UniProtKB/TrEMBL annotation:
Origin: domain of life: Bacteria
Species of origin: Exiguobacterium mexicanum
Protein's UniProt name: Four-helix bundle copper-binding protein
InterPro entries: Csp_YhjQ, YHJQ-like
Coiled-coil blocks: none
Matching Pfam families: Csp
Lineage: Bacteria, Bacillati, Bacillota, Bacilli, Bacillales
């Protein structure tokens, strides 16, 4: 089954989506939400594509490679944005790390 050969990717996608969702929520609790607007937007986008790709893998989609390439691009963008805030927000640092790991796993699958 396709999902068995992609266990590492599925784990990375799941972890990335969870960290993005946590970062999204934590950013909304910060004092300067406006400064974090791009981070919040990318957290949502990244969590959504990770969840979608995880779902596509388990449904044996013929587009896993193409979706993984797009997911890698979005994960990288989210990591770059979160890294801008990582010195001040632990949730951004953890999110950036998860996004980098996920981007690498996605590139390997693409």
């Amino acid at each position: 089954m396709a999902h068995e050969q992609h266990q590492e990717l599925i784990r990375a996608l799941h972890d990335c989506a969870a960290e993005c969702n946590h970062c999204f929520d934590a950013c909304l609790q910060e004092d300067d939400v406006k400064m974090l607007a791009q981070c919040i937007r990318l957290d949502r986008e990244c969590a959504d594509i990770c969840a979608f790709l995880e779902h596509a893998i388990t449904h044996n989609s013929p587009f896993v490679s193409e979706l993984a390439a797009v997911c890698a691009t979005i994960c990288e963008a989210c990591a770059e944005e979160c890294e801008k805030h990582a010195d001040h927000h632990e949730h951004c640092r953890r999110c950036a790390e998860a996004c980098r790991r996920c981007a690498e796993a996605c590139r390997n699958a693409a």
